[in-house]
Amino acid sequence: MISGAFAIFFTGYPHVWSIYQPYVMEQAGWTQGQASMCFYLALCTFVFGNIVGGRIQDKRSPRMVVFIGGGIFAAGILLSAFLIVPSPLPIYLTYGVMQGFGQGMLYITIISTAQKWFPGRTGFASGIVVTANGLCGFFLAPISRQLLEMGGARLTFLVIGAAITLSWLLSSIFFFAPDKKWRQEAEAELLKTQGKAAVQKQYSSSEMMRTRDFYLLLATMLCGLVSYFMISPVSQTHQIELGIPSSIAVGAVMIGSIVNAGTRLVLPALADRVGRVVCIKGVLAVSVASMAVLCVSRSYAVTAAIILMYGCYGGIMGSFPSFTSSIFGLEHSGENYGFVMFGIVIATIAAPAITGVLTGRGYEMYAVFAAGTVFAVVAFICLQLLNRQLGRKRALEMEQER
Protein backbone atom coordinates (compact mmCIF):
# COMPACT_ATOMS: atom_id res chain seq x y z
CA MET A 1 0.00 0.00 0.00
CA ILE A 2 2.86 2.38 0.80
CA SER A 3 4.68 1.59 -2.44
CA GLY A 4 1.41 1.99 -4.33
CA ALA A 5 0.76 5.39 -2.74
CA PHE A 6 4.32 6.48 -3.61
CA ALA A 7 3.78 5.55 -7.27
CA ILE A 8 0.30 7.05 -7.50
CA PHE A 9 1.57 10.34 -6.03
CA PHE A 10 3.11 11.26 -9.39
CA THR A 11 -0.12 10.60 -11.33
CA GLY A 12 -1.22 14.08 -10.24
CA TYR A 13 1.63 15.60 -12.27
CA PRO A 14 -0.48 16.95 -15.19
CA HIS A 15 -2.31 19.24 -12.78
CA VAL A 16 0.81 21.40 -12.34
CA TRP A 17 1.11 21.95 -16.11
CA SER A 18 -0.12 25.56 -15.77
CA ILE A 19 3.22 26.35 -14.09
CA TYR A 20 5.18 24.86 -16.99
CA GLN A 21 3.05 26.39 -19.73
CA PRO A 22 4.54 29.93 -19.92
CA TYR A 23 8.11 28.57 -19.93
CA VAL A 24 7.34 26.08 -22.69
CA MET A 25 5.49 28.71 -24.72
CA GLU A 26 8.45 31.08 -24.50
CA GLN A 27 11.06 28.43 -25.34
CA ALA A 28 9.17 26.73 -28.18
CA GLY A 29 7.13 29.67 -29.48
CA TRP A 30 3.77 27.93 -29.02
CA THR A 31 0.40 29.61 -28.67
CA GLN A 32 -1.59 29.23 -25.46
CA GLY A 33 -3.99 26.86 -27.22
CA GLN A 34 -1.14 24.61 -28.39
CA ALA A 35 0.36 24.50 -24.91
CA SER A 36 -2.97 23.84 -23.16
CA MET A 37 -3.53 20.81 -25.39
CA CYS A 38 -0.79 18.97 -23.46
CA PHE A 39 -2.97 18.99 -20.35
CA TYR A 40 -6.16 17.91 -22.13
CA LEU A 41 -4.40 15.10 -24.00
CA ALA A 42 -2.91 13.76 -20.77
CA LEU A 43 -6.31 13.82 -19.07
CA CYS A 44 -8.15 12.12 -21.94
CA THR A 45 -5.59 9.36 -22.53
CA PHE A 46 -5.50 8.83 -18.75
CA VAL A 47 -8.99 7.34 -18.89
CA PHE A 48 -8.08 4.94 -21.71
CA GLY A 49 -5.03 3.85 -19.70
CA ASN A 50 -7.40 3.07 -16.82
CA ILE A 51 -9.53 0.83 -19.01
CA VAL A 52 -6.62 -1.06 -20.60
CA GLY A 53 -4.68 -1.34 -17.33
CA GLY A 54 -7.80 -2.43 -15.46
CA ARG A 55 -8.51 -5.20 -17.95
CA ILE A 56 -4.93 -6.51 -17.93
CA GLN A 57 -4.60 -6.50 -14.14
CA ASP A 58 -7.98 -8.20 -13.71
CA LYS A 59 -6.91 -11.00 -16.07
CA ARG A 60 -3.16 -11.19 -15.46
CA SER A 61 -1.02 -9.48 -12.80
CA PRO A 62 -1.19 -6.01 -11.17
CA ARG A 63 2.60 -5.97 -10.90
CA MET A 64 2.87 -6.45 -14.68
CA VAL A 65 0.58 -3.48 -15.29
CA VAL A 66 2.51 -1.29 -12.82
CA PHE A 67 5.76 -2.19 -14.56
CA ILE A 68 4.43 -1.47 -18.08
CA GLY A 69 2.41 1.63 -17.16
CA GLY A 70 5.14 3.13 -14.98
CA GLY A 71 7.70 2.57 -17.73
CA ILE A 72 5.53 4.35 -20.31
CA PHE A 73 4.88 7.22 -17.87
CA ALA A 74 8.55 7.71 -16.92
CA ALA A 75 9.73 7.46 -20.53
CA GLY A 76 7.14 10.04 -21.62
CA ILE A 77 8.39 12.65 -19.15
CA LEU A 78 12.09 12.03 -19.76
CA LEU A 79 11.65 12.20 -23.55
CA SER A 80 9.67 15.44 -23.18
CA ALA A 81 12.84 17.14 -21.94
CA PHE A 82 14.35 16.86 -25.44
CA LEU A 83 11.23 17.64 -27.51
CA ILE A 84 10.45 21.27 -26.68
CA VAL A 85 10.64 22.30 -30.33
CA PRO A 86 8.56 24.61 -32.59
CA SER A 87 6.21 21.75 -33.55
CA PRO A 88 4.12 20.59 -30.56
CA LEU A 89 3.35 17.16 -32.06
CA PRO A 90 6.33 15.28 -30.51
CA ILE A 91 5.55 16.47 -26.99
CA TYR A 92 1.87 15.76 -27.56
CA LEU A 93 2.92 12.14 -27.97
CA THR A 94 5.28 12.03 -24.97
CA TYR A 95 3.80 14.41 -22.37
CA GLY A 96 0.23 14.00 -23.58
CA VAL A 97 -0.35 10.43 -24.77
CA MET A 98 2.48 8.47 -23.10
CA GLN A 99 2.18 10.23 -19.74
CA GLY A 100 -1.61 10.08 -19.62
CA PHE A 101 -1.89 6.46 -20.76
CA GLY A 102 0.89 5.23 -18.44
CA GLN A 103 -0.57 7.14 -15.49
CA GLY A 104 -3.98 5.62 -16.14
CA MET A 105 -2.56 2.10 -16.05
CA LEU A 106 -0.86 2.85 -12.72
CA TYR A 107 -3.80 4.68 -11.14
CA ILE A 108 -6.53 2.12 -11.60
CA THR A 109 -4.30 -0.87 -10.84
CA ILE A 110 -3.10 0.55 -7.53
CA ILE A 111 -6.58 1.63 -6.40
CA SER A 112 -8.18 -1.68 -7.36
CA THR A 113 -5.46 -3.78 -5.71
CA ALA A 114 -5.52 -1.68 -2.52
CA GLN A 115 -9.26 -2.36 -2.21
CA LYS A 116 -8.65 -6.11 -2.59
CA TRP A 117 -6.24 -6.03 0.38
CA PHE A 118 -9.04 -4.49 2.50
CA PRO A 119 -12.31 -6.07 1.26
CA GLY A 120 -14.23 -4.83 4.31
CA ARG A 121 -12.78 -1.31 4.20
CA THR A 122 -12.52 -0.47 0.51
CA GLY A 123 -13.16 3.23 1.16
CA PHE A 124 -10.25 3.44 3.59
CA ALA A 125 -7.94 1.60 1.16
CA SER A 126 -8.79 3.65 -1.92
CA GLY A 127 -8.82 6.85 0.15
CA ILE A 128 -5.22 6.35 1.28
CA VAL A 129 -3.81 5.96 -2.22
CA VAL A 130 -6.03 8.61 -3.85
CA THR A 131 -4.92 11.10 -1.20
CA ALA A 132 -1.36 10.63 -2.43
CA ASN A 133 -2.53 11.67 -5.91
CA GLY A 134 -4.20 14.79 -4.49
CA LEU A 135 -1.01 15.85 -2.65
CA CYS A 136 1.06 15.88 -5.85
CA GLY A 137 0.24 19.45 -6.80
CA PHE A 138 0.88 20.76 -3.30
CA PHE A 139 4.44 19.40 -3.25
CA LEU A 140 5.46 19.40 -6.92
CA ALA A 141 4.18 22.90 -7.75
CA PRO A 142 6.80 24.83 -5.70
CA ILE A 143 9.56 22.36 -6.64
CA SER A 144 8.70 22.68 -10.33
CA ARG A 145 8.59 26.48 -10.12
CA GLN A 146 12.06 26.62 -8.58
CA LEU A 147 13.51 24.20 -11.14
CA LEU A 148 11.90 26.11 -14.02
CA GLU A 149 13.47 29.35 -12.81
CA MET A 150 16.88 27.66 -12.43
CA GLY A 151 17.14 25.72 -15.69
CA GLY A 152 13.93 25.88 -17.69
CA ALA A 153 11.59 23.11 -18.77
CA ARG A 154 14.32 20.68 -19.88
CA LEU A 155 16.00 20.51 -16.46
CA THR A 156 12.61 20.25 -14.72
CA PHE A 157 11.43 17.37 -16.90
CA LEU A 158 14.70 15.52 -16.31
CA VAL A 159 14.63 15.93 -12.51
CA ILE A 160 10.93 15.09 -12.13
CA GLY A 161 11.33 12.27 -14.68
CA ALA A 162 14.16 10.79 -12.60
CA ALA A 163 11.94 10.84 -9.49
CA ILE A 164 9.12 9.17 -11.44
CA THR A 165 11.57 6.52 -12.67
CA LEU A 166 12.60 5.79 -9.07
CA SER A 167 8.98 5.44 -7.94
CA TRP A 168 8.31 3.15 -10.92
CA LEU A 169 11.20 0.83 -10.10
CA LEU A 170 10.38 0.67 -6.38
CA SER A 171 6.68 0.03 -6.94
CA SER A 172 7.48 -2.64 -9.54
CA ILE A 173 9.49 -4.47 -6.87
CA PHE A 174 7.28 -4.04 -3.79
CA PHE A 175 3.72 -3.73 -5.12
CA PHE A 176 1.71 -6.92 -5.45
CA ALA A 177 -1.85 -8.23 -5.05
CA PRO A 178 -3.11 -10.65 -2.39
CA ASP A 179 -3.07 -14.26 -3.53
CA LYS A 180 -6.23 -16.30 -4.06
CA LYS A 181 -5.99 -18.15 -0.74
CA TRP A 182 -5.60 -14.93 1.26
CA ARG A 183 -8.60 -13.38 -0.52
CA GLN A 184 -10.76 -16.43 0.16
CA GLU A 185 -9.89 -16.27 3.86
CA ALA A 186 -10.61 -12.52 3.97
CA GLU A 187 -13.95 -12.98 2.21
CA ALA A 188 -14.87 -15.82 4.59
CA GLU A 189 -14.11 -13.55 7.57
CA LEU A 190 -16.17 -10.78 5.98
CA LEU A 191 -19.05 -13.19 5.53
CA LYS A 192 -18.92 -14.03 9.25
CA THR A 193 -18.96 -10.41 10.38
CA GLN A 194 -21.37 -8.93 7.81
CA GLY A 195 -23.42 -11.96 6.82
CA LYS A 196 -24.88 -12.50 3.37
CA ALA A 197 -24.91 -8.73 2.76
CA ALA A 198 -21.17 -9.04 2.09
CA VAL A 199 -21.78 -11.38 -0.84
CA GLN A 200 -22.59 -9.61 -4.10
CA LYS A 201 -22.64 -10.26 -7.81
CA GLN A 202 -19.29 -9.60 -9.50
CA TYR A 203 -20.14 -7.67 -12.67
CA SER A 204 -17.93 -7.73 -15.74
CA SER A 205 -17.67 -4.45 -17.65
CA SER A 206 -20.10 -5.60 -20.34
CA GLU A 207 -22.63 -6.66 -17.69
CA MET A 208 -22.14 -3.39 -15.81
CA MET A 209 -22.84 -1.28 -18.89
CA ARG A 210 -26.14 -3.07 -19.43
CA THR A 211 -27.44 -1.79 -16.10
CA ARG A 212 -29.19 1.47 -15.32
CA ASP A 213 -26.98 1.82 -12.25
CA PHE A 214 -23.89 2.41 -14.40
CA TYR A 215 -25.39 5.36 -16.29
CA LEU A 216 -26.75 6.98 -13.14
CA LEU A 217 -23.31 6.57 -11.51
CA LEU A 218 -21.60 8.02 -14.59
CA ALA A 219 -24.03 10.96 -14.71
CA THR A 220 -23.51 11.69 -11.00
CA MET A 221 -19.74 11.83 -11.42
CA LEU A 222 -19.90 13.82 -14.65
CA CYS A 223 -22.29 16.53 -13.40
CA GLY A 224 -20.56 16.76 -10.04
CA LEU A 225 -17.19 17.39 -11.69
CA VAL A 226 -18.45 19.93 -14.25
CA SER A 227 -19.14 22.38 -11.43
CA TYR A 228 -15.56 22.12 -10.15
CA PHE A 229 -14.00 22.39 -13.61
CA MET A 230 -15.95 25.62 -14.17
CA ILE A 231 -14.46 27.34 -11.13
CA SER A 232 -10.98 25.78 -11.00
CA PRO A 233 -9.37 27.65 -13.96
CA VAL A 234 -10.61 31.06 -12.72
CA SER A 235 -10.35 30.52 -8.97
CA GLN A 236 -7.54 33.08 -8.56
CA THR A 237 -8.45 35.62 -11.24
CA HIS A 238 -12.12 35.84 -10.19
CA GLN A 239 -11.17 36.69 -6.60
CA ILE A 240 -8.66 39.31 -7.72
CA GLU A 241 -11.25 40.90 -10.05
CA LEU A 242 -13.57 41.24 -7.04
CA GLY A 243 -10.88 43.18 -5.17
CA ILE A 244 -9.76 40.34 -2.93
CA PRO A 245 -5.99 40.63 -2.30
CA SER A 246 -3.89 38.36 -4.49
CA SER A 247 -2.18 36.87 -1.42
CA ILE A 248 -5.56 35.65 -0.16
CA ALA A 249 -6.53 34.40 -3.63
CA VAL A 250 -3.33 32.36 -3.93
CA GLY A 251 -3.68 31.18 -0.33
CA ALA A 252 -7.20 29.96 -1.08
CA VAL A 253 -5.88 27.70 -3.83
CA MET A 254 -3.16 26.32 -1.53
CA ILE A 255 -5.64 25.71 1.30
CA GLY A 256 -8.01 24.23 -1.26
CA SER A 257 -5.33 21.73 -2.28
CA ILE A 258 -4.95 20.63 1.34
CA VAL A 259 -8.73 20.33 1.77
CA ASN A 260 -8.87 18.39 -1.50
CA ALA A 261 -6.30 15.87 -0.24
CA GLY A 262 -7.86 15.67 3.22
CA THR A 263 -11.33 14.97 1.83
CA ARG A 264 -9.95 12.18 -0.36
CA LEU A 265 -8.63 10.51 2.80
CA VAL A 266 -11.37 11.16 5.35
CA LEU A 267 -14.57 10.82 3.34
CA PRO A 268 -14.06 7.30 1.85
CA ALA A 269 -13.01 5.95 5.27
CA LEU A 270 -16.06 7.58 6.86
CA ALA A 271 -18.24 6.09 4.12
CA ASP A 272 -17.17 2.58 5.22
CA ARG A 273 -19.05 3.28 8.46
CA VAL A 274 -22.00 5.55 7.60
CA GLY A 275 -22.61 4.67 3.94
CA ARG A 276 -21.24 5.92 0.62
CA VAL A 277 -24.46 7.47 -0.63
CA VAL A 278 -24.84 9.55 2.54
CA CYS A 279 -21.30 10.92 2.22
CA ILE A 280 -21.55 11.70 -1.49
CA LYS A 281 -24.92 13.39 -0.94
CA GLY A 282 -23.21 15.63 1.60
CA VAL A 283 -20.48 16.49 -0.90
CA LEU A 284 -22.99 17.38 -3.62
CA ALA A 285 -25.11 19.44 -1.20
CA VAL A 286 -22.01 21.47 -0.29
CA SER A 287 -21.24 21.82 -4.00
CA VAL A 288 -24.72 23.22 -4.70
CA ALA A 289 -24.44 25.70 -1.82
CA SER A 290 -20.90 26.80 -2.80
CA MET A 291 -21.79 27.38 -6.45
CA ALA A 292 -24.87 29.35 -5.34
CA VAL A 293 -22.64 31.58 -3.19
CA LEU A 294 -20.35 32.18 -6.18
CA CYS A 295 -23.40 33.31 -8.19
CA VAL A 296 -24.35 36.11 -5.81
CA SER A 297 -21.45 36.99 -3.53
CA ARG A 298 -18.75 39.60 -4.10
CA SER A 299 -17.10 39.26 -0.68
CA TYR A 300 -14.74 36.89 1.10
CA ALA A 301 -17.55 34.31 1.00
CA VAL A 302 -16.27 33.65 -2.54
CA THR A 303 -12.91 32.56 -1.10
CA ALA A 304 -14.62 30.16 1.30
CA ALA A 305 -16.80 28.77 -1.51
CA ILE A 306 -13.76 28.12 -3.70
CA ILE A 307 -11.99 26.24 -0.90
CA LEU A 308 -15.12 24.13 -0.37
CA MET A 309 -15.30 23.32 -4.10
CA TYR A 310 -11.76 21.94 -3.94
CA GLY A 311 -12.95 19.74 -1.09
CA CYS A 312 -15.97 18.60 -3.11
CA TYR A 313 -13.69 17.60 -5.98
CA GLY A 314 -11.55 15.56 -3.59
CA GLY A 315 -14.67 13.98 -2.12
CA ILE A 316 -15.88 12.80 -5.53
CA MET A 317 -12.49 11.53 -6.68
CA GLY A 318 -11.87 9.79 -3.35
CA SER A 319 -15.29 8.18 -2.95
CA PHE A 320 -16.14 6.90 -6.41
CA PRO A 321 -13.58 4.05 -6.66
CA SER A 322 -15.03 2.29 -3.59
CA PHE A 323 -18.58 3.35 -4.52
CA THR A 324 -18.18 1.64 -7.89
CA SER A 325 -16.83 -1.50 -6.22
CA SER A 326 -19.68 -1.56 -3.70
CA ILE A 327 -22.19 -1.67 -6.57
CA PHE A 328 -20.46 -3.88 -9.12
CA GLY A 329 -18.03 -5.94 -7.01
CA LEU A 330 -14.26 -6.11 -6.56
CA GLU A 331 -13.44 -8.85 -9.06
CA HIS A 332 -13.41 -6.54 -12.12
CA SER A 333 -13.14 -3.24 -10.24
CA GLY A 334 -10.15 -2.04 -12.26
CA GLU A 335 -11.75 -2.10 -15.69
CA ASN A 336 -15.18 -1.13 -14.32
CA TYR A 337 -13.96 2.06 -12.68
CA GLY A 338 -12.05 2.88 -15.86
CA PHE A 339 -15.35 3.11 -17.73
CA VAL A 340 -16.96 5.15 -14.94
CA MET A 341 -14.06 7.61 -15.30
CA PHE A 342 -15.32 8.58 -18.74
CA GLY A 343 -17.27 11.10 -16.67
CA ILE A 344 -13.99 12.96 -16.11
CA VAL A 345 -13.29 13.19 -19.85
CA ILE A 346 -16.77 14.45 -20.65
CA ALA A 347 -16.69 16.95 -17.77
CA THR A 348 -13.23 18.20 -18.83
CA ILE A 349 -14.53 18.90 -22.33
CA ALA A 350 -17.97 20.17 -21.33
CA ALA A 351 -16.91 22.69 -18.67
CA PRO A 352 -14.65 24.91 -20.85
CA ALA A 353 -17.08 24.54 -23.79
CA ILE A 354 -20.04 25.82 -21.73
CA THR A 355 -17.91 28.58 -20.23
CA GLY A 356 -16.74 29.62 -23.70
CA VAL A 357 -20.28 29.73 -25.09
CA LEU A 358 -21.63 31.82 -22.20
CA THR A 359 -18.73 34.29 -22.02
CA GLY A 360 -18.63 34.49 -25.83
CA ARG A 361 -22.22 35.71 -25.81
CA GLY A 362 -21.39 38.48 -23.37
CA TYR A 363 -22.46 36.86 -20.12
CA GLU A 364 -20.36 37.43 -17.00
CA MET A 365 -18.84 34.64 -14.91
CA TYR A 366 -21.90 34.68 -12.66
CA ALA A 367 -23.85 33.03 -15.48
CA VAL A 368 -21.17 30.33 -15.66
CA PHE A 369 -21.45 29.72 -11.93
CA ALA A 370 -25.24 29.53 -12.27
CA ALA A 371 -24.79 26.80 -14.87
CA GLY A 372 -22.42 25.05 -12.46
CA THR A 373 -25.09 25.20 -9.76
CA VAL A 374 -27.56 23.52 -12.11
CA PHE A 375 -25.08 20.72 -12.84
CA ALA A 376 -24.51 20.17 -9.11
CA VAL A 377 -28.28 19.91 -8.58
CA VAL A 378 -28.57 17.41 -11.45
CA ALA A 379 -25.74 15.34 -9.90
CA PHE A 380 -27.64 15.26 -6.59
CA ILE A 381 -30.83 14.13 -8.37
CA CYS A 382 -28.97 11.38 -10.27
CA LEU A 383 -27.48 10.12 -7.01
CA GLN A 384 -30.92 10.08 -5.41
CA LEU A 385 -32.29 8.03 -8.33
CA LEU A 386 -29.34 5.65 -8.08
CA ASN A 387 -29.94 5.22 -4.35
CA ARG A 388 -33.58 4.31 -4.98
CA GLN A 389 -32.51 1.82 -7.64
CA LEU A 390 -30.03 0.20 -5.25
CA GLY A 391 -32.68 0.13 -2.52
CA ARG A 392 -35.07 -1.77 -4.78
CA LYS A 393 -32.33 -4.30 -5.57
CA ARG A 394 -31.60 -4.85 -1.89
CA ALA A 395 -35.28 -5.31 -1.11
CA LEU A 396 -35.62 -7.85 -3.93
CA GLU A 397 -32.56 -9.79 -2.73
CA MET A 398 -33.93 -9.91 0.82
CA GLU A 399 -37.27 -11.14 -0.49
CA GLN A 400 -35.56 -13.89 -2.48
CA GLU A 401 -33.57 -14.96 0.60
CA ARG A 402 -36.80 -15.26 2.64
Give descriptors for this structure.
402 residues; mainly alpha; globular
Write a structural description.
The chain is mainly alpha-helical. The protein is 84% helix and 0% strand. The chain contains 16 helices and no strands. The protein has helices at residues 2-9, 17-28, 32-59, 62-80, 89-117, 122-174, 180-194, 205-208, 212-231, 235-241, 246-274, 276-296, 301-328, 333-340, 342-360, 365-401. Helix 11 (246-274) packs parallel to helix 13 (301-328). The longest helix is centred in the middle third of the chain and has 53 residues, at 122-174. It is globular and about 70 Å long. The protein starts with a helix and ends with a helix. The mean pLDDT is 85.
Q: Please summarize the sheet with the most strands.
A: none
Which class of secondary structure composition applies to the elements?
A: mainly alpha
Question: Count of helices?
Answer: 16
What's the mean pLDDT score? 85
Seen as an oligomer or otherwise, the chain set is single chain
Topology:
Elements: H1 2-9, H2 17-28, H3 32-59, H4 62-80, H5 89-117, H6 122-174, H7 180-194, H8 205-208, H9 212-231, H10 235-241, H11 246-274, H12 276-296, H13 301-328, H14 333-340, H15 342-360, H16 365-401
Helix pairs in contact: 1-5, 1-6, 2-3, 2-6, 3-4, 3-5, 3-14, 3-15, 4-5, 4-6, 5-6, 5-14, 6-11, 6-13, 9-13, 9-15, 9-16, 10-11, 11-12, 11-13, 12-13, 12-16, 13-14, 15-16
